[in-house]
Amino acid sequence: MRIRRLVLDVDKAFAQPSLFDIAAAIEKVSGVEGFNISVEEVDQETVGTLINVEGDNIDYAGRPACGHRKKWCCRAWCRGNCRR
User: Domains along the chain?
Assistant: First the structure.
């Protein structure tokens, strides 16, 4: 089944991870062409976000775009080191 759009309702801790960390992780996923993170609600301990992810054949398992099996792999590292 091809996944073209995901809508995620995410409550995250106020301090960690940052929205930049979340954005960086989403960007690495194979098939993601664009995404939007909207802050819907903020209280003392949590931040409520709505994340819309769009692309063609999004890899729901979360593998990086390079196809490397380790989730920590990033595109910059793979350009010179990934054997895929």
Answer: 5-81 (3.30.70.1340)
What is the Cα–Cα distance from 74 to 72, expressed in whole angstroms?
6
For 59, the 3-state DSSP assignment is coil
Q: What is the C-alpha radius of gyration for the chain, rounded to an integer number of angstroms?
A: 14
- Return d(Cα 40, Cα 9) in angstroms, integer: 10
Q: How far is CA 68 from the centre of its chain?
A: 15
Per-residue pLDDT tens for 10-46?
999 988 899 999 999 999 888 999 999 999 999 999 9
CA atoms within 13 A on the CB side of 43: 5
Cα angle, residue 12 at apex, residues 9 and 17 outer, rounded to 5°: 125
pTM: 0.71
- Give me 43's structure tokens: 């209280």
